[in-house]
Amino acid sequence: MLIDIVSIFPAMFRGVFGESIIRRAEENGLVRLRVIDLRDFSSGKHRKVDDAPFGGGAGMVMKPEPFFKAVSFLRQGDKNPDLCRVVLMSPRGKLFTQERADQLSKAEHLIVLCGHYEGVDERVHQYLAQEVVSIGNYVLTGGELPAMVLVDAVTRLIPGVLSDVSLEEESFSDGLLEYPQYTRPRSYLGMTVPEVLLSGNHELIKRWRQKESWQRTLKNRPEILKKGPYEEN
Ligand code: ADE
Predict the structure, then answer these.
(1) How far is the first Cα of the chain from the last one, in angstroms, to the nearest whole number?
(2) Sheet (strand 61-62) strand order
(3) Residue 135 Cα: closest atom of ligand 1
(4) Cα separation of 147 and 16, whole Å?
(5) Average pLDDT, integer, range 121-150
(6) Ligand 1 binding pocket includes 90 (Cβ within 6 Å)
(7) Segments forming the whole domain that contains residue 149
(8) Is the pLDDT of residue 231 over 80?
(9) How far apart are CA 12 and CA 52, in angstroms?
(10) For residue 172, what pLDDT band results from cuts at 50, 70 and 90?
(11) 96, 175: one domain
(12) Is the domain of 205 the same as that of 146?
């Protein structure tokens, strides 16, 4: 899978993509990540990527041309254009869910556009992005952190990046939050591991984990039990 990120702050991605599972996935050839500077696709010596909004108002709006030019350039090498998805990160988009991450992980080429300032020219939303995605009901200073979240969630679903077992057992894959986990020592500062986990009785352990998953979901995310985890907002 090829993932391209288009941003005016490419340096922000170095740390995140240079560590841990994403780095290993890249080293193992499972994913290729490229971070592209949007300014490389702007014209004029000032490399301008924003301008004042038509109709007036505070702040600047990101211009359409650099985004269109960047995407057109990045798509040049696509052998199968249907397997390329262009995603714009924006607080106005549809909420990012595990289901959306699953769908995106099946693409061959993902192009993630990061917005900034007061927003991005509407023509990018309407005619360039195939999906507009928000990572939560809050506004960040730009699309870079949301893009990192999306790329992380998608990369770990690419076959071979994690073991199949860890994907099967995790939160949301069965519609419930994950059960509590413990490791050594059995007792730490008087805090002990539940006896059932030490019992060796796999059937009992399975039932205990199911019960804990239900209780935790009911307490922390009751809306999941009502709607199902993947339902769109
Ligand atoms: N840009 C700013 N806030 C955002 C959010 N919540 N999701 C996606 N992109 C954003």
Answers:
(1) 28
(2) 50-51, 61-62, 119-120
(3) 7
(4) 11
(5) 98
(6) yes
(7) 2-155
(8) no
(9) 25
(10) low
(11) no
(12) no
